[in-house]
Amino acid sequence: WPYNYESAGGRGDCGRTWVHGYVLGANGLAESGVQMRVGNQEGWRGDVWTDVNGYYEATFAWHVQAGKWFVRVFKGGQARSMQFWWETSPGCDGPYSLQEVEITWRHR
Questions:
Q1: Model's pTM, two decimal places?
Q2: pLDDT for 102
Q3: What pLDDT shows up at residue 51?
Q4: Residues in the chain with pLDDT values less than 70
Q5: Beta strand pairing status for 17-24 and 35-40?
Q6: CA nearest neighbour of 14 among 58, 46, 84, 61
Q7: Beta bridge partner(s), residue 107
Q8: How many CB atoms lie within 10 A of CB 86?
Q9: What are the residues facing 7 on neighbouring strands?
Q10: If you write DSSP's letter for every residue of 54-92 in order, what string do you get?
Q11: Cross-strand bridge partners of residue 70
Q12: DSSP summary character for residue 22
């Protein structure tokens, strides 16, 4: 794949369940206008695009939502990365809670 995830991390968030991050070129500079496909294991999917700073953000729910989610880089309507999957927790305040995930992608 031309794009790989460079870093990923997460934490609890009692306000929403979401993903965000950046898409960087091989030179380390932000890539704007990159399509990011997001979705879940139940077949729902949607698209968001990076802004001028290479930043993307997608909210799955405006509350704590347990589930299995993914994000993937698309360019020119074609998948350009693997699907990165993770699972969110049903609670938001424990040491293993997860609702907010940040993933940075980089072009090889």
A1: 0.94
A2: 98
A3: 98
A4: none
A5: unpaired
A6: 61
A7: 3
A8: 15
A9: 104
A10: SEEEEEEESS---EEEEEEEEETTEE-SPPEEEEE-S-S
A11: 39, 85
A12: E
